[in-house]
Amino acid sequence: xxxxxxxxxxxxxxxxxxxxxxxxxxxxxxxxxxxxxxxxxxxxxxxxxxxxxxxxxxxxxxx
Length: 63
Known about the structure:
The chain is an alpha+beta fold. The protein has one helix and four strands, in the order E-E-E-E-H.
């Protein structure tokens, strides 16, 4: 099954921070939209839920 990639709503419009995600029943993939063949981070379903929850709590915010 080929993943359907979409640009993250948190990516800047046309700027340097462009991230794409692809969700499927087994989890998620994350990649750099400017380097689509450069590889991806893969998350299982439980890992993805944990990652999103941690991000929403601000753990990755710049200080």
